[in-house]
């Protein structure tokens, strides 16, 4: 069974793997990479059976909240449901600007978004509400006071921060402490062997502030799954075939070297390549959960292998070395004398 981990300094416990529901949508902005509707119940059932009790969605994922809430209905009291606020609810595409109170982190937008997510999910409370991205147009105190009130009302149990700059993350935590308000318990961030930018500022800040880390996109849009070959066109229907700009960003010498090392480690353990990439994250300090997506039950079962895969210190060092970024100043200067 997949173990549970504590989220930072809070009392919240989550499964080491979280099932991400972005691909549950077939009509919204991510519909092109959405799962077949007939697969959804099987995917969730397989997750629950394996011990995954934590599920992540967002209002901007189109129909995902409604579909996930319907499937999780029978399990509601035994699962952790996470959703997000910041961007407008979206089904299909529209060229018109949405009403101002439907997006952002203002008091009005947050309250409206929470109420609508509760309705779509068919639940009376959210276990975790993530601030999906920073909003410089709104004072962080306004957002924090609003969230504190919603926690007191019992509509959310905890909240966390996602896609914030390191200094904005730190500001949110310190402002909450200064005002004696509920503060964030975790940070959700993009982190993988080919996307290690979070390690420069956000990961150290989260560790210093005792926040739990939720890593999303651990396979870099599927690039680290092992199904892509250098020089070959991405297979029709794959995520990177749909998002060619993402593929072109990953299609560089360093990333192919990372993938080659992953393939080697996976062969030594006789496990799927993607499982090694996820296990590398699970071995990192303060990681509470790694968010895995799956368009099919088979993909989910491959990802679940990571939960029981223990990499050696030598294997982790090999992967760290081949994927190490050029940090630049001041990180490169500081690390000559101490870890930053």
Automatic annotation (TrEMBL):
Residues 17-323 form the NADP-dependent oxidoreductase domain. Keywords: Oxidoreductase. Pfam families: Aldo_ket_red (PF00248). This is Aldo/keto reductase. It comes from Actinoplanes sichuanensis.
């Amino acid at each position: 069974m997949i173990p549970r981990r504590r989220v930072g300094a809070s009392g919240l416990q989550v499964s080491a793997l979280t099932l991400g529901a972005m691909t549950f949508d077939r009509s919204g902005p991510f519909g092109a990479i959405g799962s077949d509707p007939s697969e959804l119940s099987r995917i969730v059932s397989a997750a629950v059976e394996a011990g995954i009790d934590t599920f992540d969605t967002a209002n901007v994922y189109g129909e995902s909240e409604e579909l996930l809430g319907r499937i999780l209905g029978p399990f509601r009291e035994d699962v952790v449901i996470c959703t997000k606020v910041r961007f407008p609810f979206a089904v299909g595409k529209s060229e018109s600007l949405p009403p101002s109170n439907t997006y952002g982190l203002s008091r009005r937008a947050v309250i409206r978004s929470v109420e609508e997510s509760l309705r779509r999910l068919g639940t009376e409370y959210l276990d975790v509400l993530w601030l999906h991205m920073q909003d410089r147009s709104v004072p962080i105190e306004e957002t924090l006071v609003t969230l504190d009130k919603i926690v007191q009302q019992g509509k959310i149990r905890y909240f966390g921060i996602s896609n914030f700059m390191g200094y904005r993350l730190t500001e949110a935590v310190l402002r909450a402490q200064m005002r004696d308000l509920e503060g964030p318990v975790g940070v959700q961030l993009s982190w993988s062997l080919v996307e290690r930018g979070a390690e420069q500022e956000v990961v150290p800040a989260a560790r210093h502030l005792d926040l739990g880390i939720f890593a999303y996109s651990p396979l870099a849009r599927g690039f680290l799954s092992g199904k892509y070959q250098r020089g070959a066109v991405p297979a029709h229907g794959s995520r990177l075939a749909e998002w060619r700009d993402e593929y072109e960003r990953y299609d560089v010498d360093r990333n192919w070297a990372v993938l080659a090392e992953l393939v080697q480690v996976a062969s030594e353990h006789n496990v799927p390549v993607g499982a090694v990439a996820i296990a590398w994250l699970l071995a990192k300090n303060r990681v509470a959960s790694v968010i895995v997506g799956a368009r099919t039950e088979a993909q989910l079962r491959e990802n679940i292998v990571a939960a029981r895969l223990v990499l050696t210190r030598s294997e982790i060092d090999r992967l760290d070395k081949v994927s190490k970024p050029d940090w630049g100043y001041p990180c490169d200067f500081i690390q000559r004398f101490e870890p930053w």
